[in-house]
Amino acid sequence: MKKTIKVLVTDPLEKEGIQILKDAGFEVAESGKLAPEKLCEIIEVYDAVIVRSATKITRDVIKRGANLKIIGRAGVGLDNIDIEAATLAGIIVMNAPEGNTVSVAEHTVAMLMALARNVSAADRSLKNGQWEKKKYTGTELYGKTLGIIGLGRIGRRVAAVAGSLGMKVLGCDPYLDKNLLDGTGITVVSLPGLLQQSDFITLHIPLSDSSRHMIGESAFEGMKDGVSIINCSRGGVVDEDALYKYLSSGKVKGASIDVFEKEPPDAENPLLKMEQVIVTPHLGASTKEAQVNVAQQLASQIVSALTEKEVKNAVNMPSLDKKSMEKLQGYLSLGEKLGILLKQMSGGGIKKIKVVYSGDIINYDLSLLRANIIIGLLKDFEKVNPVNASLILKEKGIGIEEDRRESGGEFTNLITAAVEDGREISAAGTIIREGEARIVKIDGFSVEAAPEGYLLVCYNEDKPGIMGHIGTILGEKGVNIASMTLGRSKKGGQAITVLNLDQGIDNEVLTRIEEFPAIHSVKLVRI
Ligand code: NAD
């Protein structure tokens, strides 16, 4: 009987998402927020766990999740998940980044406008019986400069709205593919340039070791006098002590803060007491639409990944778009088989792998192909999958070198992989017209063998009698030869003979084959 897939949902998830999981036949448990110790006690039986930002998925939880395949974050930020531990354990960590974009961008613009027009303070004042028109005179946004740090989904959406308000939009994002900015009207500048020129600065970057306190004393020093700051990204990106200092001095005119270093912030946090500071309790993604979008998106991704269709938005695993998948499908499996072949042909102790990709496959994302070659090489060692393949390789101290070439010579596409374990062993493979995989070279000798079942690889001299010798021994043992291929350097020179066998043979048979004087060595490979 097929095992029921079990999903644990620890933080609230909209019912539309739960329904998608149930419709797929999954068993769903909604536990509510659990402390890591409690989670450790129950996690073992689950295939996937869904969290928002409250539940912490620690190294210990991951260790106890013997069946865990996916950690899903209904939202974007992943600071509550130990991604490194999950990666090493081969567990996919995925988020649902698109569902929140519009809501967070709209909240950012609301915070920007409220700041420019003193909405929050004026509201409080009027409700306290005051009518302070002069005191709350505001600033137009039209013609002002907005600096956006982080030009991802949310940053670009904010830019679009700000542009329509007549703001001049500057942006900085050192990691972004600049093609994504075509037609956005964003002027890309350096961070110091952005700090210097902006009237309003908004942050849309993740919190990481490198972005923590990115907006601290020295950043504030580099800003225009009277600048205003909006942070709807993550607390910790802005140094709150420094923000307080520069707000107090008047260098920073105002701030809108949705996210805090500590959430909820302490009641004594001085920022909460400043009139020129607008605060909201991490409301960026808090709209009905965003919650539903995110829940549906994540649930669909989990169903797709656990039913072995597509893996989307995994943050710790290479995933391919549809077009690349169609192109590379056959090569992915070929890559794994090349890895298996080389692992078994070498004596173990591999120190380095070299891979050359040739032909038009080089125009596609080859990260999953690379992972598959590594999987083949490490297959016998442990639970290796596309999530942890590169990390395990690195941990084993095995280096990998890759090269890409335009032409595969006589082949449209060719993958050539070589391992070093004292000597170099190489194999190359391609997909032939009918969509079938073929090993077309071993150690530089041209062959044509299907990478399937049992392969007997003999290094020999090109002399008569070899096939007769091998055929007689295999015949005696009742082993059928499915196909045979011979590659040689020159007539009478060094050669390689590869036979596809219908079944395996034992060491005694291999030794008898090797006894023939013109045969130097024999290896049996099982793919
Ligand atoms: P995204 O991944 O599409 O964009 C993030 C961008 O930041 C990327 O383009 C990245 O290159 C850039 N970046 C990273 N480090 C940078 C740096 N040091 N300097 C400049 N750019 C840098 O993510 P997104 O969907 O746009 O979300 C942005 C952030 O918003 C998230 O990381 C999350 O922390 C936050 N967020 C907040 C809420 C909320 O409720 N307030 C909700 C969702 C997301």
Low-confidence stretches: none
**% residues in beta strands:** 15-25%
* Class derived from helix and strand content: alpha/beta
Strands ordered across the widest β-sheet: 8-7-6-9-10-11-12
Q: How much helix, percentage-wise, in residues?
A: 25-40%
**What does the oligomeric state look like here?**
single chain
Describe this structure as you would to a colleague.
Strand 3, helix 3 and strand 4 form a beta-alpha-beta unit. The strands form 4 sheets. Strands 8-7-6-9-10-11-12 form a 7-stranded parallel beta sheet, sandwiched between helices. The protein has a 6-stranded mixed beta sheet with strand order 14-13-15-16-17-18, covered by helices on one side. A 5-stranded parallel beta sheet has the order 2-1-3-4-5. The longest helix has 24 residues. It has 3 domains: 111 residues, NAD(P)-binding Rossmann-like Domain (Rossmann fold), CATH 3.40.50.720; 179 residues, Rossmann fold, CATH 3.40.50.720; 205 residues, 60s Ribosomal Protein L30, Chain: A. With 527 residues, it is α/β, with parallel strands linked by helices. The protein binds nicotinamide-adenine-dinucleotide. Nicotinamide-adenine-dinucleotide (NAD) binds next to helix 5 and helix 7.
